[in-house]
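Subject: for your reference before the review

Hello V.,

The reviewers asked for a structural picture of the protein, and I figured it would be easier to keep everything in one thread rather than splitting it across files. Below is the amino acid sequence we used in the manuscript, unchanged from the supplementary table.
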Amino acid sequence: MGLCEKAIQPEVLKAFCVEAMVKGGLNANDAEVTAKVLVKTDTWGVYTHGTKQLRGLMKNYRDKRMDINARAEVIGQGHSWGLIDNHHAMPMPASVMAMNLAIEKAKNTGIAYVAVRDSGHYGGAGYYANMAAEKDMIGLSFTNVDPGVAVPGARVPVMGTNPIAYAVPADKEYPVMLDIATSVVAASKVYAAMDVGKSIPEGWIIDKDGLPTTNPNGYPEFGALMPMAGHKGYGFALMVEIFTGILAGGAFGNQVTSWVKEMPTPVNQSHAFIAINIESFMPIELFKARMDSLIQFIKSAPKAKGVGRIYLPGEMEWEAHAKVLKEGMMLPDHVMIRLQGLADDCGVSIKKLYS
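And here is what came back from the structure prediction:
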């Protein structure tokens, strides 16, 4: 039996998170946007990047590493681009603002790029990519992260996990959605194993000598995550660093500070958002029909022995989402531990999750 006593409804979880943030000093509007992002991510079953992250974000405010009174500001823009300085405010409202700005610009220009600097941990990259897909556009989202991943030949962290996400609308099929770290796994999965005292699979991280280890303790002070697919993941992580920190004029490389470590310096990640207006290329109905054809082609491929079904990227998440809307969700222990801590920090009763 886990720590979650019974299935929790998304709207109840959202209300709990909003109340905790408001009691912690955040304005109600930013709290609402932030909770929406994190709860939606939980409904996809991506618990490492959902509401469990909220306790750490609120701690950043208490530690003066983020500014609870700050507001994101558009500091530059053109027909198909924009630049936002988040001024160390809550990352989710600035990220939603950025993707909405990219979507609006792409309506006129076909494609638009908007970057955010001086921000923090923005949760799951897929949420923002899916914002564009919901508007019948193709969305992409990237963020740089403090170094935690080795590159080929190194035994220390050089790149961040630097995730990449894209989302593409379809017709009768679910939107195709991919959200991946450019490391073998997201750092949050290593932290989740630490929270519950479990080992991790070999190949996720290396120790201080550059050798594979299954013991997560000591990371990130010692050792490093491994890049996915060796030099290929390294190359994509570098691309994200360029699209975010470099192009946004923000922190990059070892200038990027960790949002989870105890340190006095502000959190300073950068994000990038791209929206592509499908209607600039062809009628949206035609595009969606073509996407359905591609999806059905992939799913109908001859299956390997013992395989009952072929999935598209994001399909498992959308099915989990549909189930959660009907039945609620049983949150994993590593999430409940963080939510209990958030409740204690902000003076909210954890029992409200079951009301």
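For the response letter, the relevant points are probably these. Strands lie at 73-77, 81-85, 111-119, 137-143, 164-168, 176-180, 205-206, 212-213, 224-225, 269-277. The first helix runs from residue 10 to 23.

Happy to draft the paragraph if you're swamped.

O.
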